From TrEMBL, chain A:
GO terms for cellular component: nucleoplasm. The gene is NICN1. It comes from Nothoprocta perdicaria. This is Nicolin 1, tubulin polyglutamylase complex subunit. InterPro entries: Nicolin-1.
TrEMBL record, chain B:
This is Tubulin polyglutamylase complex subunit 1. Residues 60-80 form the RIIa domain. Pfam families: RIIa, TPGS1_C. Residues 97-286 form the Tubulin polyglutamylase complex subunit 1-like C-terminal domain. It comes from Nothoprocta perdicaria. One of its GO terms (molecular function) is microtubule binding.
């Protein structure tokens, strides 16, 4: 019963402070504060932050936001400069089905030179070995990139000619 | 300049280069000398000598041979064989000579000098495709395969790899080979040759001159195979991934780990290493369709 909140995203329109309260499916029927007086505009009289996008992730919320049945937004704007204030494009995201960590490319971990463990055996010179191996890789890439553009124009199917494709001259 | 002078000494008809002729004639400003200058330049132009010498110079620059004199001698001899000196009607040389000359053309420039290599390959194709009294014009698959075989062997590439590569790039014996297919086949063979040479050098680096440890060989081959397997990544990521796997640090780690994991050490023979490495290469060659 109730939904789970992962993140709340909205676009501000001249709101200085926002508070969010939630009501849960179980427990007492009172409103729990999950975001208390979050400042959206640096100065309520000024423009900064007045039309920005904001995100309230789960880990910044004060209470547990599972089994939520209702959400209440309280907007405050103490400045008399702005006659109308609100929040727009409100989106509430539940936790996604699977959030796999993005595939970490292997080469990213090789950016800093790894400390070589004290080798007990004699290793062949890595510079020389690497130079030859890299050149071999380049040669293979060269040939992999090429392909004969022209086709021979074979008419045979599985090694035998298809009679219909041969022309009678 | 030295090569040019040698070439001038070799072929008798080339009396002097137009440049030196001009310089000689300019010193005494006499009407007779001016007339001589005209006739000299004319003579050279008429005999097509200036064009021929220019061609020879270009070929020397492309090929950068270690023996320029021998190279130029070879070049002019082949030129005479083909009757390019201006005399038409000579019987075109037989197949073995054509094959030798095509092979010579193909070996002139390194495959990485793409424009020079392409033009030489085109010359070789023309040479092999020429018609004669007894044969039709065009290059058939059999001659093509023979040329490819000679490009690869004798050479560092192992025989199985050469056969596997030929299976991919050659044509059926009776088929007519278009220039593009010809160029592709010749390029693959030239690159395989260089690849095998590098694999040999790699084996020497691993073994320090003697037989190389099997664990090291396998570790390095595996790293190469993994680096090649990233072929689907877009170019920047592909180079970064390959650089990480095949860089000195990555390889040193791989080798060190291989030595640590398996205690028993055996040697891998050079032939086996070349075979395995060449197999990696041939696997990436696209077959001709």
């Amino acid at each position: 019963r109730g939904g789970r909140l992962q993140e709340i995203v909205f676009r501000n329109f001249y709101t200085a402070f926002v508070s969010v309260r939630v009501q849960r499916a179980r427990g007492p029927r009172r409103w729990l504060t999950c975001v208390r007086r979050r400042r959206l505009m640096a100065s309520p009289h000024a423009e900064q932050g007045a039309q920005d996008y904001f995100s309230l992730p789960r880990h910044q919320m004060l209470c547990d936001v599972d089994q939520v049945t209702a959400v209440r937004f309280i907007l405050r704007q103490p400045s008399p400069v702005w006659l109308h204030f609100t929040i727009e494009e409100l989106q509430i995201f539940p936790p996604s089905q699977k959030s796999p960590p993005k595939d970490f490319p292997s080469w990213l971990s090789a950016l800093t030179p790894l400390p070589l463990p004290a080798s007990r055996q004699e290793l062949p010179d890595p510079e020389k070995v690497s130079a030859e191996a890299q050149q071999m890789w380049v040669l293979t890439e060269v040939i992999r990139a090429r392909q004969a553009a022209a086709r021979i124009g074979r008419f045979d199917v599985d090694g035998c000619y298809d009679v219909n494709l041969l022309s009678y001259t | 300049a030295a090569a040019v002078q040698d070439g001038a000494r070799l072929s008798a008809p080339v009396a002097a280069l137009p440049d030196s002729g001009l310089r000689r004639a300019a010193a005494p400003p006499v009407a007779a000398a001016a007339r001589e200058l005209d006739s000299e330049a004319e003579f050279l132009l008429q005999a097509g000598v200036s064009a021929m010498v220019r061609e020879a110079l270009l070929k020397v620059l492309e090929a950068r041979p270690e023996e320029p004199v021998a190279f130029l001698a070879d070049y002019f001899e082949k030129l005479e064989l083909s009757g390019a000196g201006g005399e038409a009607g000579a019987e075109p040389p037989g197949l073995p000579q054509r094959l030798a000359r095509a092979l010579w053309y193909v070996r002139l420039a390194h495959h990485s000098h793409r424009p020079a290599f392409s033009s030489n390959v085109a010359l070789a194709y023309e040479c092999l495709s020429g018609g004669g009294r007894r044969r039709r014009a065009g290059l058939d698959g059999r001659l093509f395969s023979e040329l490819l075989r000679r490009v690869c062997r004798p050479g560092p590439a192992p025989a199985e790899a050469v056969s596997a590569l030929l299976r991919k790039v050659q044509c059926r014996e009776h088929e007519a080979v278009p220039l593009d297919v010809f160029r592709y086949g010749v390029l693959s063979c030239a690159v395989l040759r260089e690849f095998a040479a590098k694999a040999g050098a790699l084996y020497d680096a691993l073994g320090g001159g003697g037989p190389a440890d099997k664990r090291l060989c396998q570790a390095v081959l595996r790293a190469l195979e993994e680096a090649l397997a990233d072929g689907d990544l877009p170019p920047p990521a592909r180079y970064l991934a390959a650089g990480a796997k095949l860089g000195p640090d990555g390889l040193a780690l791989a080798m060190e780990r291989a030595l640590r994991e398996r205690k028993l050490s055996a040697a891998m023979s050079r032939e086996e290493f070349l075979r395995k490495a060449a197999a990696l290469f041939v696997a990436k060659v696209k077959a001709v369709e």
